[in-house]
Specification:
This protein has ten helices and 19 strands. It is an alpha+beta fold. The protein has two domains: 129 residues, no CATH class; 248 residues, Collagenase (Catalytic Domain), CATH 3.40.390.10. The strands form three sheets. The chain has a nine-stranded mixed beta barrel. Strand 9 and strand 10 form a beta hairpin. The two termini are 39 Å apart. The N terminus and C terminus are likely disordered.
C-alpha cells in the first residue's frame, strides 16, 4: 500500500523473471533478470515512463518505490529521499602499474536517493547520475539494479538488469580463531569501559600520535552532527570482481561504493537507535587495478590479518576517520577484521572485509562497528533479542546495547576527528 505521505510518484520496477539465467558468482548464487522502470501515479493508478525529469521532480519529498518480481511473487515497497554519502568534496583515485592517479568525476550528490523498506528489514540506494544503478538489501537477499548509460532529461529509462543474490554466508566467531589471539589482545587496549582503562587508552593514543605529521583540521560548522569521514579501497581481487559484473571503470565502481555506503549510513544514522545524529561521508574511493608493491605478497593469503596489517601501516597518513579495504577470492572462514575502538587513530582506524557477494551489508556494519568500539553481543550484555549485526545472525539491526559503546567512543574521539574536518576539501565534481 502506498503511503499518503509519499510523493505522487511511485516507481514500479517490474521484472521479467521468466528470462532469468542462474549462475554461480564467487561461491554466491546470483540470478540475473531483466526488467523495466515505470512511473505510477497512485491517485489514478496509471503508468508512465520513468525519466530523469521524474526523478528530479520534488526531490526533497519522500518518494514511494516498488521493486516487483512478479513471477516470484515478491514486491518490495520502499520510501526514498534524496540522500548521499558522496559529497562535492569527495575524491576518487585509481592505482595502475605503480601510479596513483586522482580522477575528477562528474558525480552529483543530488542524483542519489536512499531509504528503507516500508515493511520488513532492509535498505535501498539508487543513483540516477549516469543511467540507473542501485542496491536493495535485505538480510537474506540483495537486488542489484543496473542500466548504466547517460540519460537525457526526458529520455525513457530502458530495460535494466537486476541481479538477485542470496547473501547467506557462513561466519566464524573471530574470537575463537587461534590465529587472531594476538590481534584480539591488541584490540583490548583500544576499547575500555572503566575510568582507569580510559586513562590508559588516552596515554596510548597520545603515544601513537607523537610521531604523526601535523594535520591541519578545520572545525566543522555544525557542532551538533557527529560526522565520520570514510575512505574505501578495493584491492585487485575485488577490482577484478567488480569488472566481472560490469563495473569496469572508476566511475562505475565509485557509484557502486556510494550506493553501498548510503545503506550503511542509513543504519548508523538512525538517531532513535544510535542516540545522536551520526552522519557518514564517503570522502575517498581508491580502486587498485594493480596492487601496490607492499600488498602483492599477501593478496591471496587466506589469513586476513596478513592483509590488514600492511594496509593499515601503508595508509596511516590518510586523514579519514575510518579506512575500509575490500577483498575477494581468498579462502578462510573469517569474513572481516577490524581494530576495536580504533577509529581516529591513524594506526588502527582501519578494517578489511571479504565479500562473497557484491554488497553483503551485514559484514560492513559488523566491522565498522568493531572500529567504533563495539564488541560481539555476548560481551555487551544486556542486549535485547533478537541479535543485532554484532551477533551471529543475518540482520541489519542496530541493537540497543551498542549505544553505550558508541557514546563512549565519540566522547573520547570527537575532539580528535569526529567533530573535525580532516579530509581535503577540494571540489572536483562538475
Amino acid at each position: 500500500m502506498v503511503s499518503t505521505r509519499a510523493s505522487e510518484l511511485l516507481l514500479l520496477l517490474s521484472l521479467a523473471c521468466s528470462q532469468a539465467v542462474g549462475h554461480v558468482l564467487r561461491d554466491t548464487e546470483m540470478r540475473q533478470v531483466s526488467g523495466r522502470m515505470l512511473v505510477l501515479k497512485p491517485l489514478s493508478g496509471t503508468h508512465d515512463r520513468l525519466t530523469r525529469r521524474h526523478v528530479d521532480l520534488d526531490a526533497e519529498s519522500p518518494q514511494a518505490v516498488r521493486l516487483e518480481l512478479g513471477s516470484e511473487g515478491i514486491s518490495l515497497d520502499m520510501t526514498l529521499t534524496r540522500r548521499s554519502v558522496w559529497t562535492n568534496e569527495s575524491r576518487a583515485f585509481e592505482y595502475q602499474d605503480g601510479e596513483l592517479v586522482e580522477v575528477p568525476l562528474n558525480l552529483d550528490p543530488n542524483c542519489f536517493m536512499a531509504g528503507g523498506l516500508d515493511s520488513g528489514e532492509g535498505s535501498a540506494s539508487f543513483s540516477f547520475c549516469d543511467g540507473v544503478s542501485g542496491i536493495v538489501q535485505t538480510p537474506e537477499v540483495e537486488y542489484l539494479v543496473e542500466q548504466t548509460r547517460e540519460l537525457d532529461s526526458d529520455e525513457d529509462i530502458s530495460e535494466v538488469t537486476v541481479s538477485v543474490v542470496d547473501t547467506s554466508v557462513e561466519e566464524r566467531d573471530l574470537e575463537d580463531d587461534e590465529e587472531l589471539v594476538a590481534i584480539e589482545e591488541e584490540e583490548r587496549i583500544y576499547f575500555n569501559i572503566d575510568r582507569d582503562s580510559y586513562n590508559s587508552s588516552e596515554i596510548l593514543w597520545k603515544r601513537d600520535m607523537q610521531d604523526e605529521p601535523a594535520i591541519q583540521r578545520t572545525t566543522r560548522q555544525n557542532k551538533v552532527d557527529i560526522t565520520g569521514e570514510i575512505a574505501v579501497y578495493a584491492d585487485k581481487n575485488y577490482a577484478d570482481f567488480l569488472k566481472s559484473t560490469g563495473r569496469n571503470t572508476l566511475a562505475k565502481a565509485t557509484t557502486f561504493f556510494a550506493n553501498k555506503w548510503n545503506t550503511i549510513a542509513r543504519v548508523y544514522g538512525d538517531k532513535s537507535k544510535v542516540g545522536v545524529k551520526f552522519v557518514l561521508q564517503l570522502k575517498q574511493v581508491e580502486v587498485w587495478w594493480t596492487n601496490p608493491r607492499y600488498y602483492r605478497s599477501v593478496q591471496n593469503n587466506n589469513n586476513l590479518q596478513k592483509h590488514l596489517n600492511p594496509f593499515c601501516s601503508n595508509t596511516r597518513n590518510s586523514k579519514a576517520d575510518h579506512r575500509m579495504l575490500y577483498t575477494a577470492g581468498v579462502g578462510g572462514g573469517v569474513m572481516g577484521l577490524a581494530w576495536i575502538g580504533g577509529i581516529c587513530n591513524p594506526n588502527r582506524a582501519c578494517s578489511i572485509v571479504k565479500n562473497k557477494s557484491l554488497s553483503n551489508l551485514k559484514v560492513e556494519l559488523h566491522e565498522f562497528g568493531h572500529n567504533l568500539g563495539f564488541r560481539h553481543e555476548p560481551q555487551m550484555q544486556p542486549c535485547s533479542k533478537p541479535d543485532g549485526f554484532m551477533g551471529w545472525t543475518r540482520t541489519h539491526k542496530f541493537n540497543d546495547c551498542y549505544k553505550r559503546s558508541f557514546v563512549q567512543t565519540y566522547r573520547l574521539r570527537s575532539r580528535d576527528c569526529l567533530r573535525q574536518t580532516n579530509m581535503k576539501t577540494r571540489v572536483l565534481n562538475g
